Amino acid sequence: MMSKSTLLKVILLGDGGVGKSSLMNRYVTNKFDSHLFHTIGVEFLNKELEVDGRRVTLQIWDTAGQERFRSLRTPFYRGSDCCLLTFSLDDGQSFQNLANWKKEFTYYADIKDPDSFPFVVLGNKLDIPERQVSGEDARKWCRENGGHPYFETSAKDATNVASAFEEAVRRIQATDDRDGHLINTDTNTVDLQRKSQPQHSCC
């Protein structure tokens, strides 16, 4: 008998141009397109994988980073199991804006306990040598803003992309284990709202 697969919704947030679409496409299709257009509104792709012996279907939502698309993207925040806060290592302003993205997500997703909700921080475009954000500064931000795990990624050459998404799954599963419930995709309706318990660690 096949084991049940858990449906998990993760959302990529960050400024326009930091590479959210490229990260999603690299992870799901293992392809990179340097000529991707900016996302308008939202789009998502599914990826089936096994993490620590558990089968999951990861529903990855990519959102438009431009301010003018806020009304299009924010309704899709609800029901997220994990948020991947994304900035570009060669764009210091995108790093400075992480706090605003976290605040926006927490408000529109109606997160009751932001300190315990699973966030993962991604510093993308590691392949570009002219970086403006140091790993030390990024890890410090993670420590001071909830102890979030941090990955430096490159959608272009796939560095740490799979590891980052798998860590998101582990964070969600750890929360579910404490709550004592899982969601499976064998049912016709899926409740993506869940309560979280505190967790603090940073890599």
UniProtKB/TrEMBL annotation:
Keyword GTP-binding (UniProt): yes
- GO MF annotation terms: G protein activity; GTP binding
* Cofactors named for this entry: Mg(2+)
Q: Which reaction does it catalyse?
A: GTP + H2O = GDP + phosphate + H(+)
A Gene Ontology cellular-component term: cytosol
As recorded in UniProt, its EC number(s) are 3.6.5.2
InterPro entries xrefs: P-loop_NTPase (IPR027417), Rab9 (IPR041824), Small_GTP-bd (IPR005225), Small_GTPase (IPR001806)
One Gene Ontology BP term is: retrograde transport, endosome to Golgi
Which Gene3D superfamilies does the annotation name? P-loop containing nucleotide triphosphate hydrolases
First-level EC class: hydrolase
Q: How does it sit in the membrane?
A: Lipid-anchor
- Give the species: Oreochromis niloticus
Q: Which PROSITE patterns match?
A: RAB (PS51419), RAS (PS51421), RHO (PS51420)
Which PANTHER family does the record cross-reference, listed alphabetically? RAB FAMILY, RAS-RELATED PROTEIN RAB-9A
| Localization terms from the record | Cell membrane; Cytoplasmic vesicle, Phagosome membrane
Q: Which family does it belong to?
A: Belongs to the small GTPase superfamily. Rab family.
Does the entry feature the keyword Cell membrane, yes or no?
Answer: yes
- SUPFAM superfamilies associated with the record: P-loop containing nucleoside triphosphate hydrolases
Instruction: Give the UniProt keywords, A-Z.
Output: Cell membrane, Cytoplasmic vesicle, GTP-binding, Hydrolase, Lipoprotein, Membrane, Nucleotide-binding, Phosphoprotein, Prenylation, Protein transport, Transport
Name of protein: small monomeric GTPase
